[in-house]
Design a protein that fits this description.
The chain is of the alpha+beta class. The protein contains five helices and ten strands.
Length: 181
């Protein structure tokens, strides 16, 4: 389940139950069937924007409350289950934790096949990137320097400008990026 579906399922359940509403009552107020509401709360449905609009309107809440990160003390991301946000011929990018207004950090998992290159745009003024290689050897071209990063090493750089991740090796490279604004 991707992070947005997860957010919607947790927030809908939390809001509905905090109001003491049954699924039947929520269905009556929103015009969305009980079975659809149940499937959304279980993370088994991918509701359309129209369905989400009905839910927000019927429960008299802001749409953003449905999609915002739910207030939780912990959250486990299984990267194998996360849908890629970008794919190319030899790379995959997955969002583990997106940027949020109350948390100025983003975390991504990137996989690059041998011979692959992933070109990343700049991430905004004052943004720094921290990356940790899990497997393989990654070459990072920041536009100002070229740095080779091995497993168990962490590299930090200013990522305001376009930069490239390069796999010159014979095995896939897997790494985690942290962007802090």
């Amino acid at each position: 389940m991707d992070y947005l579906s997860y957010n919607i399922s947790k927030n809908l359940n939390r809001i509905r139950t905090s109001r003491g509403m049954s699924l039947d009552a929520a269905a009556e107020q929103t015009g969305v069937s009980k079975s659809m509401l149940y499937q959304i709360e279980q993370g088994e449905a991918n509701p359309s924007i129209n369905v989400l609009g009905k839910i927000a309107s019927g429960l008299r809440m802001e749409f953003t409350e449905l999609i915002a990160s739910p207030p939780e003390e912990s959250y486990l991301v299984k990267t194998a289950e996360v849908y890629p946000i970008k794919t190319g011929e030899k790379y995959t990018v997955k969002t583990c934790f997106p940027y949020e207004d109350n948390k100025k950090i983003e975390i991504y998992r990137i996989d690059i096949d041998p011979g692959g290159v992933y070109l990343s745009g700049g991430h905004g003024t004052g943004t720094r990137e921290y990356l940790s290689v899990l497997e393989g050897v990654l070459t990072v071209d920041t536009g100002r320097e070229i740095q080779e990063v091995n497993p168990d090493e962490i590299f930090r750089f200013n990522c305001e400008k376009e930069h490239r991740y390069i796999n010159n090796g014979e095995a896939a490279v897997h790494f985690i990026c942290f962007f802090i604004a």
